[in-house]
Specification:
Multiheme cytochrome fold, 2 domains, 7 helices
């Protein structure tokens, strides 16, 4: 393939990729995921029950989805949002997801860190007497706190 033909091909390919990607981003309301609005989480129907549960929960007055499900700090927050956005899109597009949806281990770690950060004084009091024993996850006992049924 000659250089000019290759350049045209690459230009068309780049344009098509940008066009399809841009259309998909707008169609899927991708811009909404850049905000802290909890309604963005319910763009996918499988998350509707979780949003409804959060609205009923005690955490509604204290935290939004990103406060619990993304790390503190700009870089960490958007790195997790980008990774989750890709994998959620992949799962929903291919139909490879469990229903009801379940949290993955990497996201459970982020959630646990968030619980421990916001409730540091309580966690310190609880962890003190239990040092040296098995580390108990907050959500083991408090699974319904953020998303009441």
């Amino acid at each position: 393939m000659s250089r000019p033909v290759l350049m045209i091909f690459l230009g068309v390919l780049a344009g098509a990729t940008a066009g399809i990607g841009g259309y998909t981003f707008v169609y899927a309301k991708g811009y909404s995921y850049l905000t802290d609005n909890p309604a963005a989480c319910a763009n996918c129907h499988v998350m509707r029950d979780h949003l409804d549960g959060w609205i009923k929960s005690s955490h509604r007055s204290a935290a939004v989805c990103n406060d619990c499900h993304t790390p503190a700090g700009f870089a960490g927050k958007y790195a997790v949002k980008a990774s989750n956005g890709f994998w959620h899109s992949f799962a929903f597009t291919t139909g490879r997801f469990h229903e009801p949806i379940r949290i993955k281990e990497r996201n459970r770690r982020v959630l646990e860190e968030s619980c421990r950060r916001c409730h540091a004084d309580i966690v310190e009091a609880l962890d003190g007497p239990h040092r040296g024993t098995e580390h108990i996850l907050c959500v083991k006992c408090h699974a319904g706190v953020g998303h009441e049924k």
